Amino acid sequence: MSGHSKWATIKRKKGANDAKRGKLFAKLVKAVEVAARQGGPNPAGNATLAQAIAKARASSVPMDNIERAIKRGSGELDGAHYEEIWYEGYGPGGVAFYCQILTDNRNRAASDVRSTFNRNNGALGEPGSVGYLFEPKGHIVVAGDEEAVMLAALESGAEDVRSAGDSHEVITSPTDLFAVNDALIETGLAVESAEVVQMPSNVVPVDASTASKVLRLVDALEDLDDVQTVYANYDIDDAVMAELVSD
């Protein structure tokens, strides 16, 4: 499992305090609203909205909040107009960062992201500086028997399966995400998450000292209200990750 995926999974399993949980809810609801505005309010004809709803529900966002977000996105209710921006930069150890922003204030977002990079041994880059290192892919995390996962995933059109113990990453093209996800569920496997992500074409191995700085920057960026998702191409050894988590 990639370093970025391992860290995201660990944080999800560890849970969060009420403040961070409230911030996560706000970001998930914002994603639903933007998806409804861009592709329409019907998830049956808007795959991005369907994915945003599924992700929000998986994190226990109340359905009332989701429905209001869809209505704001469709114009049925008043709401802020969020703009999607991608910021690119470098972190400790030359790790590439690719950050999805949903904001109603471009100047605020740029200032906050830049200062966060600067405070955490990183640097905000120019557009195009690292974006070419990432490619959209369907990404499913599923638990269960490796052979069963491999068989169901590859037969339904997955591109790759990467296993680490009882947890498996299933990689698909963005357009095949839902078909592969449904096939895994129909087989009786426990799908933990399914979404389109920006996957790095290559990774940068980092040692323990650098890894702690990289993860600090990831967390600092994710803590910003305007930052929706942070992707980075670091790779942290399992033993180093375990040591960092235990600290």
CATH class of the largest domain: Alpha Beta
Order of helices and strands: HHHHEEHEEHEEHEEHEEH
Biggest sheet features? 4 strands, antiparallel
- Classify the fold: give the CATH topology of the largest domain: Alpha-Beta Plaits
| Shape verdict | globular
- Helical content band: 40-55%
| Count of individual domains | 3
Instruction: Tell me, rounded to a whole number, the average pLDDT.
Output: 89
Number of strands: 10
Number of helices: 9
| Low-confidence segments | none
Instruction: Give the percentage of residues in beta strands.
Output: 25-35%
Structural class: alpha+beta
CATH superfamily descriptor of the largest domain: YebC, transcriptional regulation domain
Distance between the termini: 21 Å
Order the strands across the largest sheet as they lie in space: 3-1-2-9
CATH architecture of the largest domain: 2-Layer Sandwich
Features:
247 residues; Arc Repressor Mutant, subunit A; 3 domains; alpha+beta; Alpha-Beta Plaits; four-stranded antiparallel β-sheet; globular
What does this structure look like?
With 247 residues, the chain is α+β, with helices and mostly antiparallel strands. It folds into three domains: 3-74, Integrase, N-terminal zinc-binding domain (Arc Repressor Mutant, subunit A), CATH 1.10.10; 83-132 and 204-233, YebC, transcriptional regulation domain (Alpha-Beta Plaits), CATH 3.30.70; 133-200, Alpha-Beta Plaits, CATH 3.30.70. 47% of the residues lie in helices and 25% in strands. It contains nine helices and ten strands. It has helices at 3-14, 18-39, 47-58, 63-74, 106-119, 146-155, 177-186, 208-222, 238-246, and strands spanning 83-90, 96-103, 123-124, 134-143, 160-164, 167-172, 190-200, 204-206, 227-232, 234-236. The strands form three sheets. It has a four-stranded antiparallel sheet with strand order 3-1-2-9, sandwiched between helices. A four-stranded antiparallel sheet has the order 5-6-4-7. Strand 1 (83-90) and strand 2 form a beta hairpin. The longest helix is centred in the N-terminal third of the chain and has 22 residues, at 18-39. It starts with a helix and ends with a helix. The relative contact order is 0.16. The model has no long low-confidence stretch (mean pLDDT 89).
